[in-house]
Design a protein that fits this description.
Elements: E1 9-15, E2 20-26, H1 31-42, E3 50-55, E4 61-63, H2 70-74, H3 80-83, E5 86-92, H4 99-102, H5 106-121, H6 129-144, H7 165-169, H8 175-188, H9 194-205, E6 214-219, E7 225-230, E8 234-238, E9 248-251, E10 255-260, E11 264-269, E12 278-281, H10 285-305, H11 311-409, H12 415-471, H13 476-486, H14 490-509, H15 511-523, H16 533-544, H17 548-555, H18 560-568
Parallel strand pairs: 1-5
Antiparallel strand pairs: 1-2, 3-4, 3-5, 6-7, 7-8, 8-9, 10-11, 11-12
Helix pairs in contact: 5-9, 6-8, 6-9, 6-15, 11-12, 11-13
């Protein structure tokens, strides 16, 4: 019997916004099989936002059909070389209405962040210059973490990779000037985690006029060319030259069914009057299927958001909530540890400074002690010398007194002897007076020396005590401070976190004012000739004071019938 031929596998590379994934598939694997492989590999459960995109032989992009074989869709050339080099991309296909509320998993948010950032930089998604700077600052925070003035390297932001080139070209600004403006915002984001920075990025990006739209060229019954924008909220009609501001809109809540033939599309509304159905035409047969698929998918997701969550979604939300709580606890713990390290570092620096000061005081005290000892020794020597002089004076005084006694009791025989004796007596009295005066002076000096000696001994005792305290210092107060800090009540820490969160929210509310100030600052350096059409349209919209959502509300005003009639009269 002939042996059965084994099924061969073919390599295929799937490009996500973050990595290249290589798989081996069989010829029987469908688009759904490959899609499931990718989702399992990256751990994605919110798969309804994404799809696989490939290129045909004419380099036209298309979404892989889930129910058809991958090989039949990508490897249209049956050559072995072509079949061994199959590629496709895993991209966002559908967008949520509120990106900050609907995205559950961190991986989902991360993939949205990477794709929208790429769309902004590649100019597939229009972004005003001032908003580009703000988005770039959040992108840097997500990629690099907190700004550190000491470790920041000028030029490390790579301005060309985080700002659209048309934005850079519109202003007479160097890369250093752009980096400085981005850095100001970047420094304000200190403390934001990677996930929080990505979420803030997406919250700002979803307010951009072209966010979430897929545009198609269509015609009405009068053969007027317009652009149809399909997004999570509904269908919107744009003038071909202005894809920022729609002139007409139909919410998905008004639409019941969507039909299409080769060139004709018919949007049925909930009104029973068939005259209220929206009809338009498209000549691009290749893109008609894509338009129909996007309308169906967005319509289905719109209805799905308005029914209770499935068990799978509830489980994901519970897990995501637990992860956020855990991440917040880890953030609080890290914040406390950083504060403790900061305090310990400050105390260490204070101790080092104190030790240095004490060393200087110790050296000075040693010198004073040495001088006191030398002074004490000199005073002792001087006191001994004074005592010897006093003893000598006392001996001379005694001799003078003895001489006076002998002179008084001696018989003066002659007048000359009498005069001589008187003269000698006077001299003896003067000498005795001088000796007595010197003796009193020496006694005073002795008393003074004794007092100085006593003071020197007291100074020596104080110096020795101070030297002892310097050599054996105690730092018990520092440890106590650390213990007290680490034992701080958890409720107090929670209160501080809530206060910081409130402060951050208040700062977020001022973003629009800061953007206006940034725009005014940058407008001074703007080169008007290099402004794009979309930039001018955006500025005109700002001058009117209209926001994206105000415009959408205006375009959906009025009855469905009146808006269908308006579309047909364009």
């Amino acid at each position: 019997m002939p042996s059965k031929k084994k099924n061969s596998t073919l390599p295929i590379t799937v490009h996500t916004m973050e990595a290249e994934l290589k798989f081996h598939i069989s010829e029987k694997n469908t688009g759904q099989d490959l899609f499931d492989m990718v989702c399992r590999t990256i751990g994605l459960r919110e798969h309804w936002y994404f799809d696989l995109e490939a290129h045909d032989k004419d380099d036209h992009r298309f979404w892989l059909k889930r129910d058809k074989k991958v090989v039949d869709q990508i490897a249209t050339d049956n050559s072995a070389e072509h079949r061994s080099q199959m590629h496709c991309s895993f991209l966002v296909k559908y967008y949520p209405e509120d990106i900050s509320e609907e995205l559950i998993q961190d991986i989902t948010q991360h993939l949205f962040f990477l794709q929208i950032k790429q769309d902004v930089v590649s100019e597939n998604l229009f972004c005003a210059p001032e908003a580009s700077v703000l988005l770039a600052s959040y992108a840097v925070q997500a990629d690099l973490g907190d700004y550190d003035e000491n470790s920041f390297v000028p030029g490390s932001l790579r301005v060309g990779s985080i700002l659209p080139q048309t934005v850079i070209d519109q202003y007479q600004m160097t890369c250093e000037m752009w980096e400085e403006r981005i850095k100001i915002w970047y420094a304000d984001h200190k403390g934001l985690s990677k996930e929080d920075a990505e979420k803030e990025f997406l919250k700002i990006a979803q307010d951009l006029e072209m966010f979430g739209y897929s545009y198609f060229d269509i015609k009405n019954k009068r053969n007027t060319e317009v652009s149809l924008g399909v997004n999570s909220l509904g269908l919107h009609i744009f003038k071909p030259e202005n894809k920022l501001i729609p002139v007409l809109g139909f919410a998905w809540s008004e639409i019941s069914h969507i039909y299409h033939t080769e060139k004709k599309f018919k949007i049925k509304t909930f009104d029973k009057n068939h005259n209220d159905d929206l009809t338009f035409f498209s000549r691009d047969l290749r893109r008609n299927n894509l338009l129909f698929e996007l309308c169906q998918g967005n319509h289905q997701l719109y209805k799905q958001r308005r029914i209770p969550d499935t068990l799978e979604v509830q489980q994901m939300k519970t897990q995501a909530k637990e992860q956020r709580i855990k991440r917040q606890q880890e953030k609080e713990k890290l914040s406390r540890e950083q504060e403790i390290r900061t305090i310990l570092q400050q105390e260490k620096e204070a101790l080092v400074s104190r030790v240095h000061q004490l060393e200087l005081e110790l050296e000075l005290t040693r010198e004073n002690l040495k001088r006191s000892e030398e002074t004490s020794e000199l005073l002792n020597q001087k006191a001994e010398l004074v005592e010897e002089e006093n003893q000598l004076l006392r001996e001379k005084t005694a001799e003078a007194e003895a001489e006076m006694g002998r002179a008084q009791i001696s018989v003066i025989k002659t007048e000359e002897e009498k005069l001589l004796v008187e003269k000698r007596a006077k001299d003896a009295e003067l000498l005795a007076a001088r000796i007595l005066e010197d003796s009193e002076q020496r006694a005073k000096e002795v008393d003074t020396l004794k007092q100085e000696l006593e003071r020197a001994r007291d100074a020596e005792l104080v110096a020795k005590k101070k030297l002892t305290s310097l050599l054996y210092p105690q730092f018990n107060s520092t440890s106590d401070n650390v213990v007290d800090y680490m034992c701080t009540d958890m409720s107090q820490l929670k209160l501080e976190v809530e206060q910081e969160s409130k402060a951050f929210m208040e700062k977020s509310e001022s973003i629009q004012n800061q953007l206006k100030n940034l725009k005014a600052d940058m407008d001074i350096l703007k080169v008007e000739e290099k402004q794009t059409v979309l930039d001018r349209l955006h500025d005109e919209n700002l001058q009117r004071g209209d926001t994206k959502y105000q415009t959408l509300q205006k375009t959906s005003a009025g009855s469905t019938k009146s808006r269908v009639a308006f579309f047909e009269e364009l």
